Known about the structure:
Elements: H1 3-17, E1 24-28, E2 35-37, H2 38-52, H3 62-71, H4 76-79, H5 90-105, H6 110-125, H7 129-149, H8 152-156, H9 161-175, H10 177-194
Antiparallel strand pairs: 1-2
Helix pairs in contact: 2-3, 2-7, 3-6, 3-7, 6-7, 7-9, 7-10, 9-10
Amino acid sequence: MSQTDRLDAQMAFLSEACRLKSVTRANTLCDGSRYENSAEHSWHVALYALILSEHAPQGVSRDRVIKMLLLHDLVEIDAGDTPLYAQTDHSAIAQAEDAAATRLFGLLPADQATALRALWDGFEAAQTPDARFAKALDRFQPPNQNLASGGISWRDHNATLDQVETRVGQPITRGAPVLWNWILPKIREWFARNR
């Protein structure tokens, strides 16, 4: 592949990735002024990894986690965002996201396509300490934004404390128990006051 062809492929991928800015999520910004988009979320959780990596289990690669988080929601360009508390067909979503990953990473030169798809697949599988910490941060950011915004998306989706503890708590406990122990009392206090 010539340098020109390689740059053409890389730029096609980067232009397509820009579409993530148009995917609206169920969470609002911390100030509650509007709903965030998936690109903002990806950037924000990558920043979480940079800032909170000292709370990761020993041996976690901060750089690998940041890469996973920058890539993890790209598939939403094709598959859309699924709210955490929605009742959905998880198998159909997984198939749609897998097809999206194949298409999107397939835009890149083969070496980058293989490497980035492996990072995305690793994040999805959540079998390594890096992936489990990345998943934990992905689930840790939304309740922090809910707490800051007065629970807007929890209210919008009629979320229960049990749902939050299960859908958010389990992945955080698995990948970053220190973070779950820190936020759980705050979540319980919010639900006690508002439900």
